[in-house]
Amino acid sequence: MIRKASLLLVGALMGAAAVTTLAQVPFRVSDSANAAASDTYRQLNLFGDVFERVRSDYVEVPDDAQLIESAINGMLTSLDPHSSYMSPKSFRDMQVQTRGEFGGLGIEVTMEDGLVKVVSPIDDTPAFKAGILAGDLISYIDGEQVQGLSLNEAVEKMRGPVNTDIVVTIRRDGVADPFDVTITRDVIRIRSVRWREEDDVGYIRVTQFNEQTFDGVKQAIEEMSAEIGEDNLKGYIVDLRNNPGGLLDQAIAVSDAFLDRGEIVSTRGRNSDETQRYNARSGDLTDGKPVIVMVNGGSASASEIVAGALQDHRRATVLGTRSFGKGSVQTIIPLGANGAIRLTTARYYTPSGTSIQAKGIIPDIEALQDLPEELVGRAETKGEAGLRGHLESEEDGEEASGSQAYVPADPADDTQLKLALDLLRGVQVNSAFPPLGEDQASVPN
């Protein structure tokens, strides 16, 4: 499943969205861990010694619980950008947020070089309306420096009572000086799926994968199919651009909506017995209508699972720019009254057995947006490979990350959308659309 932050614990990164699952079994120690040399555990005495020295000699009386929480979070964040500790409050907030409603500003965030980085503003939220852009760096929150705060601490400061103002200081590529933006907090109700008829084409926009996403996609297909009419309907566009991810089960269900059979995704942990495969059930909700999936540099995690599954099965043509490249799974492990940890426990693989970690989904048809003058040269994301401490790719070749992530607010200016519509209507022709039949796909038996 995925994670988000403040604003949307979508997953991993809260930043990139991460695919996340909730641990359903007791914590277990692997055989290899049990066999670890005893002197490794004796090193824990060092922590105890430092802890006691801080308690006794620090210039002010420290908060013991805060010290321990910071130590745990430091251990986890040293592993990769997506593992972290969640306090009891953060854990409760995460559980609420994955249901699709939470309080905050409406941005997906991660940490980069000690600052809060905006992965994506969520449609129709206070941050979106205030003009916050993907790639913006938040350096101050209500005048307090972000440097030195953990992601969870920064997110907590951005939360607050509804209808109260918060001032965030933004550093933006291409803008010489930092500038302040005042945002009024609100209850963020995430409608993860929106849709509309584009004359003879059904357009489905998925902004994240929360508990309502599959139901929203199903409703969109049913309503537009009835409204446009089966005979007139040319096909569907599934827009996953700037979708940071979400719940793994919802990504599987959305993929299944367009597939009649075959593997959707597999996850592989450190041990071979931890491999899990998820397969489609019979029944394509679109009755085989042509599908184009749009992705860009802000499409991460769960959205990459959907794009990869439909691409590998030749069920859809993927159009846009290279996706974010987050190919890891985070498991939420509850710690009773002490919150939970978000731990990277597996990599996920597309049906062809490909890991997109630090590489991303390469579109079948690359299409760039026409950028406004003020965004030329600064409309790209760094992607997973640009995150410090990221898991390395298992695939041959150099890691590649960072691609255009701009989506115009006005559909009339959306170059990628126009191309997708023209392809479905036959106005333009491309060898990648329609894709080869599924029997041509390189997928495991």
From TrEMBL:
Hydrolase is among the record's keywords: yes
Keyword set includes Hydrolase: yes
Residue ranges of the region described as Disordered: 383-411
Record's GO cellular component terms: outer membrane-bounded periplasmic space
A Pfam family assignment: Peptidase_S41
First and last residue of the signal peptide: 1-23
Residue stretches making up the PDZ domain: 91-173
Keywords per UniProt: Hydrolase, Protease, Serine protease, Signal
One MF annotation (Gene Ontology) recorded for this entry: endopeptidase activity
InterPro entries the UniProt entry points to: ClpP/crotonase-like_dom_sf, CtpA/B_N, PDZ, PDZ_sf, Peptidase_S41A, Tail-specific_protease
Organism superkingdom: Bacteria
Basic and acidic residues bias locations: 383-392
GO BP term, pick one: signal transduction
Family: Belongs to the peptidase S41A family.
Listed name of the protein: C-terminal processing peptidase-3
Lineage: Bacteria, Pseudomonadati, Pseudomonadota, Alphaproteobacteria, Hyphomicrobiales
